[in-house]
Amino acid sequence: MDKAGNKFPLVLVVWDDAFSVDEWTPIEEIIDETSAVVRSAGFLIKETDKYLILALNHDTTNDNLSCVVFIPTNMVKELIPLDK
Question: 22 is in which domain, residue-wise?
Answer without folding.
Answer: 10-81
